[in-house]
UniProtKB/TrEMBL annotation:
The keyword Oxidoreductase applies. Gene3D superfamilies: Aldehyde Dehydrogenase, Chain A, domain 1, Aldehyde Dehydrogenase, Chain A, domain 2. Belongs to the aldehyde dehydrogenase family. The gene is LOC104767838. Keywords: Oxidoreductase. The keyword 4Fe-4S does not apply. SUPFAM superfamilies: ALDH-like. This is Aldehyde dehydrogenase family 2 member C4.
Amino acid sequence: MNKFADLIEQNVEELAKLDAVDGGKLFQWGKLADIPATANNFRYNAGAADKIHGETLKMTRQSLFGYTLKEPVGVVGHIIPWNFPSIMFATKVAPSMAAGCTMVVKPAEQTSLSALFYAHLAKEAGIPDGVLNIVPGFGSTAGAAIASHMDIDKVSFTGSTDVGRKIMQAAAASNLKKVSLELGGKSPLLIFNDADIDKAAELALLGCFYNKIKPAY
């Protein structure tokens, strides 16, 4: 995983270009922020990989003890949104990889190029074949197949509430797989009467067009 992070840093411009061409993200912002953050995420989780420990527990009877053992959940399906293709890729893939899971990753159909390039870099880094699998496609086909597949043990999805509801239903109707959801709408914002209107307008603009404008901070 550290080698993977090294290769991401060595290919920062190529990855920033792919996210810019695919999703319209600012190239300079991707080069300075998104791609370095992706590499850092893999490096951080590489450090966590050998620190996944269980616990020894004191039992009621003094002659006995119990212990917990943490094991990989199995095959994980990751469904990634379009707005942060690199950062969301790392947020989902890196901890799964550190925990010893294999995974099937479906990038958003609008922004799949960087995920395919990350798979190429993973192979160069020595990640074994079959650990990281990229399956581009539409949500109604590829995403639905992940949510309902009997051999996938967990699904992680970031996107709309409506689709998250469908994923929970498919997970329950198939093998009752574990589900992690990050759901929401498009930049919701409440502005009250006592707000600084100029500041609120600035933040609303940033929330709606973060990928298209350079943040002031």
